[in-house]
Amino acid sequence: MSASIYDFAVNNIQGQNVSLADFKDRVVLIVNTASKCGFTPQYKELEQLHQKYQDQGLVILGFPCNQFGAQEQGDSEEISQFCELNFGVTFPLFEKIEVNGPNTLPLYNYLKSSAKGLLGSEKVKWNFTKFLVNRQGQAVQRFAPTTKPMALEQDILKLL
């Protein structure tokens, strides 16, 4: 079992391998995203958090996922353009992943077992589930898709 997110490497939206150790000593908010979801407008608040707190050590990582209602069908370039054009997203985005099932990205297996959901559930229920990671790289809290990003501000500030 991994001790932190720093044990993982993932491909960014340009297809380059990125070690999450690059985000050492930062507070990280990891979100599985989708472009055609009712929660898609949360990109705006995620970007606001990113702009407001990046200089204090917050980084937001977006992981597009097509597992819920097929709401992320585009390729990496389409997803990237959509996020930039519609929401001005400047925080890092990664290649489309799976968050549940046999092809779950190993990072998400770690997140789900470290910060369990309602009633101890590990399964990610929908798009825009959020995992808050402390400066030591440990997932400390999970937030439901319905929780608006700005509602996490106090939890983020405690870790910054």
TrEMBL record:
GO terms for biological process: cellular response to oxidative stress. InterPro entries: Glutathione_peroxidase, GPX_AS, GPX_CS, Thioredoxin-like_sf, Thioredoxin_domain. Gene3D superfamilies: Glutaredoxin. It holds the Pfam family GSHPx. Residues 1-160 form the Thioredoxin domain. Keywords: Oxidoreductase, Peroxidase. The active site is at C37. The keyword Transport does not apply. GO terms for molecular function: peroxidase activity. Belongs to the glutathione peroxidase family. This is Glutathione peroxidase.
